[in-house]
Each structure stands twice: as C-alpha cells, then as structure tokens.
Amino acid sequence: MAFDSVAALRDAGILGGTMKPELEEFYGSLTQQETEVLISAKNRLSAVLPDVVAHSADWTTPEATQHGFDAAMLCACGLWSGSGQAQTMEN
Prior knowledge:
The protein is mainly α. The protein has six helices and no strands.
C-alpha cells in the first residue's frame, strides 16, 4: 500500500476541508519523511505555543477587516520586498 501524505496530514489536523486541486497534488507529492517533518513541526509548535495554536483555529480573516478596513491595503509586504507597485519620486 502506498503512503498517502494527504490522509496523514488530514489525520494530524494540518489539512482540513476542501482545497484546490493544485494544493492537493502538491501535498500528495510529499514523501513520508517530508510529511512526518510537517506533523512533527506542528506538534512541537502546539507544545511550545499552545495559546497561539488555540487561537489560530478560530482565525479566518484579519481582525482589521472586522473594523471595515481592507486587509490588502494594510499589508506592506510589497513595500518591503520591492515587489509592490509603489511609485518613486524622481528628482
């Protein structure tokens, strides 16, 4: 019987619900060793940061969106990485 990484990740509580076929294909391509590393990391994080893990299960959208802010507008990732569309001033 072949190792089913998707089933193992679901059993470990890492994957849940439905996902895009591309993601399922990616997770399905993981080796048993790679899958065990992900499961181990999740278990260790749960042990070290139980409060963070407990609250992350309830977090579906950024808190800012609950106050009417567009979360995409609050992210400065593109600014820092240089991938954003920011205009620079030329002298």
